[in-house]
């Protein structure tokens, strides 16, 4: 490769470098890690290019297999200018002010870091010697007789429960088809996702469920009673099939019950989060506690129950942020560092350790869930978060 690489633009216009950033080619990854080791004087421009890639890629969604599209986005921001010192025409990259930082520091007043807008150059992030792949669709199914099934092992013929219910995988989703005697006893199944996993499910009534990482849903193989009750730990997004005579209910471990009728909503009820959040997308839901306290939500409203509280807080919801996980993204909006790292830890199945005091800062921005761990952390680096990866542990350092 004979091209000179002196500024970030030179790297960003090179297909091999883009494939390296996207993690598409092991040979490109090895090449660039070796190249920068042999050309340490280019590290500042190299690191600036990587950060700019993360910014543009995060703003545009998944571009990890679209090198040409990514290049066209960059070309839109390249222009000709006169170098007054040499009277030569030089190209320069016009960094977007609107997308200058995927994560922005929001504590103590908004302090935006803008590429190409400051004479101070932050220390470049180290190249990852270790990396962790993103999560993937994977789950375990516990049948009524106690049999555990890893869902990647289900054959084309699927499974059959003792009540006659057929269980199949269809385009990566688990689909239940009721085909038994309605008089038979109700059988419960439990779908569980590990850290680093997620899965989709079609319930016996046709309702659709997206189960986030480190979550579980217990449900009957047929809905035979006066209501359709399922039991959730963790987080799930529901699109409920409308059945006016048989309301749908989601029961949580802390006694909270979400009662719905033909609606789409998201419930986040992880044990390690500070609150249980129920967000209504469409329709109507009633969120109730065992003590009788309840609230009725309208579309785009969110009911928040802080841990240890007996009172719901109702507010307008950021729908895009709430369901970003279902759409393949992490969305942060003025979130503290512990909230950010809890989400990453669940998706990448890693542990997080803070070296020194936990930074009292808040962050906003977007990260693709298909990024590798080092790619995600490079994006966080633009907001001043220092880190190292040691096996399955992230060590976060205050700076």
Automatic annotation (TrEMBL):
<protein>
    <submittedName>
        <fullName>FecR domain-containing protein</fullName>
    </submittedName>
</protein>
<dbReference type="Pfam" id="PF04773">
    <property type="entry name" value="FecR"/>
</dbReference>
<keyword id="KW-0472">Membrane</keyword>
<dbReference type="Pfam" id="PF16344">
    <property type="entry name" value="FecR_C"/>
</dbReference>
<keyword id="KW-0812">Transmembrane</keyword>
<feature type="domain" description="FecR protein">
    <location>
        <begin position="190"/>
        <end position="286"/>
    </location>
</feature>
<dbReference type="InterPro" id="IPR006860">
    <property type="entry name" value="FecR"/>
</dbReference>
<dbReference type="InterPro" id="IPR032508">
    <property type="entry name" value="FecR_C"/>
</dbReference>
<feature type="domain" description="Protein FecR C-terminal">
    <location>
        <begin position="330"/>
        <end position="396"/>
    </location>
</feature>
<keyword id="KW-1133">Transmembrane helix</keyword>
<feature type="transmembrane region" description="Helical">
    <location>
        <begin position="95"/>
        <end position="115"/>
    </location>
</feature>
<dbReference type="InterPro" id="IPR012373">
    <property type="entry name" value="Ferrdict_sens_TM"/>
</dbReference>
């Amino acid at each position: 490769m004979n091209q000179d690489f002196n500024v970030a633009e030179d790297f960003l216009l090179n297909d091999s470098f883009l494939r390296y950033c996207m993690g598409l080619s092991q040979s490109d990854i090895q090449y660039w890690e070796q190249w920068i080791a042999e050309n340490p004087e280019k590290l500042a421009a190299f690191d600036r290019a990587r950060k700019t890639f993360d910014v543009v890629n995060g703003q545009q969604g998944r571009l990890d297999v679209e090198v040409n599209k990514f290049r066209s986005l960059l070309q839109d921001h390249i222009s000709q200018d006169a170098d007054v010192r040499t009277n030569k025409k030089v190209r320069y990259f016009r960094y977007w002010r609107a997308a200058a930082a995927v994560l922005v520091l929001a504590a103590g007043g908004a302090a935006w870091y803008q590429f190409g807008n400051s004479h101070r150059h932050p220390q470049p992030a180290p190249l990852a010697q270790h990396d962790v792949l993103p999560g993937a669709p994977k789950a375990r199914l516990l049948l009524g007789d106690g049999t555990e099934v890893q869902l990647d092992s289900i054959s084309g013929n699927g499974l059959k429960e003792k009540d006659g219910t057929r269980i199949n995988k269809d385009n990566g989703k688990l689909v239940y088809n009721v085909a038994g005697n309605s008089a038979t006893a109700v059988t419960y199944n439990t779908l569980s996702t590990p850290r680093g996993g997620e899965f989709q499910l079609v319930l016996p009534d046709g309702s659709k469920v997206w189960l986030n990482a480190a979550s579980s849903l217990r449900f009957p193989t047929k809905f035979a009673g006066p209501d359709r009750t399922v039991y959730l730990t963790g987080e799930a997004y529901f699109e409920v099939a409308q059945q006016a005579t048989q309301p749908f209910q989601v029961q949580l471990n802390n006694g909270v019950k979400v009662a719905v009728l033909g609606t789409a909503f998201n419930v986040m009820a992880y044990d390690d989060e500070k609150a249980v959040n129920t967000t209504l997308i469409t329709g109507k839901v009633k969120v109730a506690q065992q003590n009788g306290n309840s609230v009725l939500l309208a579309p785009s409203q969110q009911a928040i129950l802080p841990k240890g509280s007996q009172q719901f807080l109702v507010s307008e919801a950021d729908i895009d942020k709430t369901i970003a996980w279902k759409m393949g993204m992490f969305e942060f909006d003025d979130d503290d560092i512990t909230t950010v790292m809890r989400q990453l830890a669940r998706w990448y199945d890693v542990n997080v350790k803070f070296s020194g005091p936990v930074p009292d800062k808040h962050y906003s921005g977007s990260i693709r869930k298909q990024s590798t761990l080092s790619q995600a952390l490079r994006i966080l680096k633009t907001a001043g978060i220092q880190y190292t990866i040691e096996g399955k542990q992230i060590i976060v350092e205050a700076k």
